[in-house]
Amino acid sequence: MYEVPKIPQATAKRLPLYYRFLQNFSNAGKIRVSSRELSEAMKIDSATIRRDFSQFGAFGKKGYGYDVQELLQFFRSILDRDEATNVALIGVGSLGSAFLKYNFHRNHNTKIVLAFDTGSPHAGEKRSGIFSFHPDVLEEKLIEHSIELVILTVPAKAAQPLADRLAGTDIKGILNFTPVRLDVPDRIRIHTIDLSVELQTLIYFIHQQET
User: Fold this and answer.
1) What residues make up the domain containing 171?
2) Which of 35, 152, 167, 206 has the greatest count of CB atoms below 10 A from its CB?
3) Which residues are annotated as a binding site for NAD(+)?
């Protein structure tokens, strides 16, 4: 087992990307890869890649590059790729339904195992092969399925009340797709993805390129 030092948040966000592209190189039969090749594939500056990798120890060799399998083993270890994490989805609207149809376990180490929606019965119903329950049974089902992570795709007004309920459970993280900045205990990690903000940011950078 590798010991991973504390790393900057920006570096941590790139870890799954490194794993994905290294897996692509491995599938293509590559034995070793240079920071330049990773840079061209990932569209990330090669200096950034070298700086990130240097924080994990001496993986690269000058004139040789990086051993693909060694890096894959390292990233698999720190990302727990060999064991799926159970995820619950709350809110099966348009975005939530898309998540259910895709489901992450096909390509990642996360798997949506159940969902919650006000339109679902207390006894549950199948949606895209996943059982969806009414939120009234939220707490008991989270315990029953050993849920660690929750994806929140509900209307804004429902976000904080649900977060308050989740704070009373043993979940460790919330992927929040609402525009609300949730208030939860420090033990729960929140990543908020506001699609409208992301779109506006993209438009800003496009306009910047045009000037």
Assistant:
1) 85-197
2) 152
3) 91-96
